[in-house]
């Protein structure tokens, strides 16, 4: 299907309308006036996204002159347009999806990396024995159409060579998708490991994972994105926002239990006192931490995006998603706002020893 910027904006705006709370106010940085900034998550406010709530709770943004409101998301595919149109100042989004949007004419820039490792894949309960792409043929696989796993499904099909016509794809919303595997409504679903695994683990079940990256769809995962005009016209705002965000990331890495408390305090839906709710948040936070621990981040600081991995992501989008007309790679990301917030060697070692057990299993 051919796309142009106008039709893409029209269709995606309609799909995303349910998540919008209004236009963002202009943000100003100053000691006396607090700027109002709107942030959209890519998905539900699960434990994988504890760090923005922590950043807000510990005052990491407010002390820098920025007041941030945080909204849930409806999948990476529905983050692009609201950020491009100014309904949100910043959005967390899968980098490959962001690049695919950029190929359609949206002028977005990644300004900080969160997950260099990609957790996108197809997941099933271990009891079903679905461990290879070909096992999906003849099965019903559930997706949320806005999520990165669905956006990248054509890439996975192309990379693996399986017959898409033999996979019965059904769609459902985010909340239903989380329940679908546990309640055995479907045998497999597309998702982010950090979104589905914590819920399954908290119920005493185990997952099989078929990760896209294990079959050649290699890419940087979650980044913080902004419209190019925001980066160019409001660099002080971007710097203050990213510094505060990464302070939240660091605090979450170093204080996991307290961070879960702060997350629960931030959201009424998690305040029932349910042990399962807390355990799900703990598992999600641990997965999110593990996905951020790569050598380049240890060397250059939190938020750093390895240019070689960004270039690999671009090639993945071009090769497997058929994207054409992408801007040069150095127009798609910048490390100018990262590098200030770091972990010491001892802190890094402690976080790594605790978190790496929660990485999604790879076929390697």
Largest sheet: 5 strands, mixed
Derived from helix and strand composition plus strand pairing, the structural class reads alpha/beta
CATH class descriptor name of the largest domain: Alpha Beta
Q: What is the number of helices?
A: 15
CATH architecture call of the largest domain: 3-Layer(aba) Sandwich
Number of beta-strand segments? 10
Element-level helix/strand string: HEHEHEHEEEHHEHEHEEHHHHHHH
Mean pLDDT: 89
Shape: globular
Task: Give the radius of gyration.
Answer: 19 Å
Number of domains: 2
Query: Which strand order does the major sheet show?
Result: 2-1-3-10-4
In CATH terms, the superfamily of the largest domain is: Periplasmic binding protein-like II
Proportion in β-strands: 5-15%
Plain-language structure description:
The protein is α/β, with parallel strands linked by helices. Helix content is 41%, strand content 15%. Helix 2 links the parallel strand 1 and strand 2 (66-71). Helix 2 crosses helix 10 and helix 10 packs across helix 11. It is globular, with a radius of gyration of 19 Å. It starts with a helix and ends in a 9-residue tail after the last helix. Residues 1-34 have low confidence and may be disordered.
């Amino acid at each position: 299907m051919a796309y142009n910027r106008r039709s893409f904006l029209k269709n995606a705006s309609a799909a995303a309308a349910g998540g919008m709370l209004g236009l963002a106010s202009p943000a100003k940085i100053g000691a006396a006036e607090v700027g109002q900034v709107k942030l959209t998550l890519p998905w539900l406010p699960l434990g994988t996204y504890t760090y923005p709530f922590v950043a807000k709770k510990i005052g990491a943004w407010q002390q820098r002159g920025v007041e941030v409101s945080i909204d849930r998301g409806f999948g990476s595919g529905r983050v692009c347009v609201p950020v491009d149109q100014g309904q949100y100042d910043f959005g967390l989004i899968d980098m490959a999806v962001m690049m695919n949007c950029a190929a359609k004419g949206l002028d977005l820039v990644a300004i900080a990396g969160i997950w260099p490792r990609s957790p996108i894949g197809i997941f099933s309960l271990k009891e079903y024995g679905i461990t290879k792409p070909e096992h999906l043929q003849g099965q019903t696989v559930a997706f949320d159409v806005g999520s990165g796993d669905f956006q990248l499904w054509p890439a996975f099909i192309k990379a693996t060579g399986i017959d898409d016509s033999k996979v019965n794809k059904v769609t459902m919303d985010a909340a239903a998708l989380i329940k679908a595997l546990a309640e055995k409504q479907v045998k497999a679903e597309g998702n982010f490991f950090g979104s589905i695994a914590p819920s399954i683990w908290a119920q005493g079940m185990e997952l099989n994972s078929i990760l896209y990256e294990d079959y050649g769809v290699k890419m940087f995962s979650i980044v913080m994105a902004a419209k190019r005009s925001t980066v160019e016209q409001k660099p002080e705002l971007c710097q203050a926002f990213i510094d505060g965000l990464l302070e939240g990331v660091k605090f979450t890495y170093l204080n996991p239990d307290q961070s879960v408390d702060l997350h629960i305090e931030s959201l009424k839906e998690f305040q029932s006192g349910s042990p399962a709710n807390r355990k799900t948040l703990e598992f999600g936070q641990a997965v999110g931490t593990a996905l951020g621990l790569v050598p380049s981040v240890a060397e250059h600081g939190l938020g750093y995006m390895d240019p070689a991995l960004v270039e690999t992501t671009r090639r993945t989008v071009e090769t497997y998603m058929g994207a054409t007309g992408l801007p040069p790679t150095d127009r798609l990301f910048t490390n100018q706002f990262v590098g200030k917030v770091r972990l010491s060697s001892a802190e890094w070692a402690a976080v790594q020893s605790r978190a790496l057990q929660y990485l999604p299993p790879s076929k390697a």
